[in-house]
Write a structure and sequence with these properties.
With about 325 residues, this protein is an all-alpha fold. It contains twelve helices and no strands. It has helices at about 25-35, 35-65, 100-135, 135-150, 155-165, 170-185, 190-200, 205-210, 215-230, 230-255, 265-275, 285-310. It is elongated, with a radius of gyration of 24 Å.
Length: about 325
């Protein structure tokens, strides 16, 4: 008679055919993720960029605390811009500021705004989808029609209108408004995905048992359903971060992002475009910020695709 555990990927076979305890779904997902070379390569690139950006920010803050000159802000003496050299590996910009420091610190701004916007998107979309999918009936219809209406509006125009209201505000107010505006228009897909998963879970046996035991609606939603949606939410969040970073860079490129003297990868690319001319091409001003931006987006997308495949229950 054939042992059914031989066809079950959740059961590990030990020496002499002994059966080890079944692996949890999370451990199975991590095992599948580690086998995805493209996802691991994206994770390595992403970790390297994040570590370099944080290191640049720490170095800049340390110089500020010591009262030393900050390459991120302080112009250097001499004629600028200068091409890459041993002293300035990424060159300098037209104002004499070190491009390596500005690229790394600007990366912290872009990553911070992107992560914050993605967090807003995930929170709003998850709560919206949970309530709409579980309650259902008329409330579900009204909530999803609101989502459909917002889907039909040009989200870039909505973000621009929100940012125009804070044009003359402090830098931290502009940055806060930026990630709130991006996150406020990016939660629609998350809401639809979560709602679809909740509709599938709503009639599951463990949900019916919780109802029969008299559990309240809030407990069923947040204690029973939400843990079962963790994989789906994690995948969607990972794929939302690059979209938020790209939107921030696009808005900064248009001059609607972080205000000076703050910099992000989008503002650096915008400044580089203004410095380009037919006589002299200052290529380093454009190449290095775009390489960091492109590497971050590719790394996040590869990691997101790897997590999606890893948490797919049909994967073997």
């Amino acid at each position: 008679m054939t042992d059914p555990s031989l066809d079950n990927p959740a059961v590990a076979r030990g020496p002499a055919g002994t059966v080890r305890p079944a692996l949890s779904p999370t451990r199975l997902a991590l095992r599948r993720f580690r086998r995805n070379r493209l996802a691991l390569a994206g994770l390595v690139v992403l970790v390297a960029i994040v570590a370099a950006a944080i290191g640049g920010l720490v170095q800049d803050r340390r110089a500020a605390w010591r009262g030393e000159s900050q390459p991120y802000r302080t112009p250097l003496p001499g004629i600028h811009p200068q091409p890459p050299s041993w002293d300035h590996p990424f060159g300098t910009d037209p104002l004499g500021r070190d491009m390596l420091a500005r690229t790394l610190v600007g990366g912290c701004v872009s990553l911070g705004v992107g992560l914050a916007a993605a967090l807003v998107s995930v929170l709003v979309g998850t709560v919206w989808g949970l309530v709409a999918g579980y309650v259902g009936r008329g409330l579900d219809t009204v909530m999803m029609r609101i989502v459909d209406v917002l889907y039909g509006l040009p989200y870039v125009l909505l973000v621009i209108l929100l940012l125009v209201l804070f044009t003359q505000q402090y830098a931290w107010v502009r940055v806060t408004a930026l990630f709130l505006a991006i996150g406020g228009v990016s939660w629609l897909t998350m809401a639809r995905v979560v709602r679809g998963q909740v509709l599938a879970l709503r009639e599951a046996e463990f949900i019916q048992a919780a109802r029969a035991m008299g559990a309240r609606t809030a407990r069923i939603i947040f204690r029973e359903m939400l843990p079962n949606l963790a994989g789906t939410i994690l995948v969607c969040a990972t794929l939302t971060v690059p979209l938020a970073i790209l939107q921030e860079s696009f808005l900064s490129f248009l001059g609607l992002g972080v205000p000076p003297p703050l910099a992000s990868w989008g503002t650096l690319a915008s400044d580089a475009l203004e410095a380009l001319n037919p006589v002299q091409a200052y290529w380093w001003l454009m190449v290095f910020p775009c390489v960091f931006l492109g590497g971050t987006l590719l790394g996040l997308n590869f990691v997101g695709d790897g997590l999606r495949d890893a948490f797919d229950p049909r994967a073997r």
